Input
Amino acid sequence: MNNLSKYILFLVSFFLLTSISFSFADSHVDSCTVTAGVFDKTQPIDNGYCASAPDAYEVTVYEMYLCTALPTAPTISSAMGLENCFKNWESTSGAILSVQQNETIDVPGTMSRPPSGTYTHGVMLIDNTFGITMAMQFNEAVTGQDGTSGIYCASVTGSGQFGSSNTIPTSTSTCGSSPITPGKFVEELTTFDETFEATATADNLNGTAASLNGYLVDTNGYLAVNDADVDKLMGRLLFASPVIFTESTTTLTMSFNVGEGMSIYNNGFNQIVFGSGPFQAIISTD
Output
């Protein structure tokens, strides 16, 4: 067999969930309003939330599967059922992918050719931490979480948790009167809601028949029971169109879109918070 491509092209449609819980009540995400590179402060500050592409989005990926039937969901006493799935990619220690929109990178790890067949579902196992790097300009002055103000804002080097009981990061942003060099802020996701919630669902992704389930899991792959129990995140997708492998298939391309991979929101004190958001990917064959 010919070797499969190990390239990742950041474009469109295997949807995984991260961060701000209320954006996943349905498949709709409010995109930030940006005109000539300048962000309107209305959505993130006055309306409370919007999503956009960060300068860089970092995620750690461990496993990816192609499945010929719907995998059973994990429970608090069992892992996801992968009997009808083939592990087509793996990195035991985790491959750290620093994603920038519309750029292509090589991905370390082991990729295997699935048996010929029709694959209707996909599963991906990733870490529950997400790195966000962003520098931006607003149309009006905005206040950062460190108390600084100005039309220029940026993420700062650090880390914080998005968890239950209204836990949000406390030091993600700084602002000023001139452009700021951003740092990487790492968000740890331990719930999909303000009260602990280990599952999330989105249907009709991008107006297609695709749907997604996200699961926060523990070290056994079981559904997590509280914030402290969360170890990783699993995404289970029904493809809008099946992925078909034949004997002539030589290339597998995984594609990602981080156009809404960064959430920007008001922390309740009119200070801007940077967090992770949903990213998308598609699997195609040649």
In short: The radius of gyration is 19 Å. The chain has one domain: 7-54+61-128+188-285. The first strand starts at residue 7 and ends at 9. The first helix runs from residue 42 to 46.
